[in-house]
Amino acid sequence: MTDTTNPDAACSPSGDPYLLTPGPLTTSLSVKQAMLHDFGSRDATFIDLNARILDRLVAIVNGDGSHVSVPLQGSGTFVVEAMIGNFVPADGRLLILINGAYGKRIAKICDYYRRDYLVQETAEDVPVDTAQLDSTLDANPDISHVVVVHCETTSGILNPIKEVSAIVARHQRSLLIDSMSAFGALPLDAREIQFDAVVASSNK
Length: 204
Description:
Elements: H1 29-34, H2 44-60, H3 76-87, E1 93-98, H4 101-113, E2 116-121, H5 130-139, E3 145-149, E4 151-152, E5 157-158, H6 161-170, E6 174-178, E7 197-199
Parallel strand pairs: 1-2, 1-3, 3-6, 6-7
Antiparallel strand pairs: 4-5
Helix pairs in contact: 3-4, 5-6
């Protein structure tokens, strides 16, 4: 993080120091100015604005007709938890593809929710092993869902989402995607990549 007491610290055009953390990131002056106006939650203007945002979020992944956007108030971990808790049933079994801290956090969430899970882990600098994924699903017919981190924040490693999706779909399982550090920046097309849910956060 930038030292705010240092006059030589790197600053944005508005004079605010740049935040050099994974998130929340520095907010631009135009965004701050847009937030100066208060909207009533039942005002027509707010309802229309909210509807446009939700539609545009779905459009980013070309998910019109197949997916909907559900806004939740909370951190990135909060919405990942919501995805796991709502999409993986109590009698389901989740395969967690881990190559960093956020994959490991999903396992902790499963512990809290008492969801059964299996872990496939690779090193932090190694993408998900798709051949191993294929064999794991073949050997474990009780796995109902697979979850993968699109871009692992801790290392920046990018996982092969398209290949993962194809394997999961071929085995007729459900795919969940944590796209916190990738959504809107890296391609994710619902017409090409089959997934049940993808989660992201505005602070990224």
